[in-house]
Amino acid sequence: MIASPYLLYLGHVNDEVGIKTSRGLAVFRPDDCVGEFRHDDCELTLGLPRMGFAEAVAAGARTLVLGIANAGGKMGDDLVRDAVAAIEAGLDVASGLHNRLRDEPALVETAGRHGRTLHDVRDPRPDIPIGNGKPRAGKRLLAVGTDCSVGKMYATLCLERAMHARGMKADFRATGQTGILIAGSGVPLDAVIADFISGAIEQLSPPRDDDGWDLIEGQGSLFHPSFAGVSTGLLHGAQPDALLLCHDPVRPHMRGLPHYPMPGLRETLDANLQVARLTNPDVRAVGVALNTSKLSAAEAERLCAETADALGLPCTDPFSMGVDPIIDWIVKCFEPSPRKATLSL
To answer: For the whole prediction, is pTM greater than 0.70?
Structure first.
């Protein structure tokens, strides 16, 4: 287990999307976050006290979480130096980057000398099976997106909270570094060998017979040429009964690819439904989740209303507006269950 409380690392990052792991922890596990560490050239903040490493230890922090994301998940020299300093100050270090902490000699040596622990969150289980596509009991919702980092994790976590508030059984199933740090478990899907992606999700979301929902965090996009493979395997392994479409309405192009325009909502929804039908022919869309954080309240409400009218589905910003319309739609469509639960063979 990763010891809390946490000091959240922002480093030199000035890309809002680049600190999504730290921001996710600050939003969904605020009681476990004592402060943020950032250099002077970092203009972003989570609204937490800015602390040095020794100051954070004095405030009770036990682990530095390297809560940044970059293309390829690489660990630069500055980050390694900061992590060494954190260990020397008395902190464990946790990271979800593709580069592993254990592969950095300076970190391994310093941690060993000070008796600290290195946590590599992006290590998948060694016993992942190959997916088989057999029908399994239970109800599953998968968040899909027009692009990467458009709010799929936020949407599913907000759904989990709201469903619990209604007395519904629901479990968030994490598939990325941020979700795993928030939930305490999950599968780092982008670190799984391609042949095992669908099997990893079948393992993450096994049969359930309590009439509850598995809310599966989506990854990537079928329209992003860098990550569409992960999205495809996730759609097949999730065997979703319901799809929730997530979108950032102010994004000008696919993340990191200015030569690729954003796809349309209907286009994205149709493509995801088609791919998902391989393992669940009865899959259906249940709503649209927009990230309206850069819009005024009036603009956000107007856009959600227009989107709902255009697609014939409830549309909301899960974080700022709540998810009641989507849950109402789910209850209407799936209570009682739309198909008989079939036990895994």
So the answer is: yes
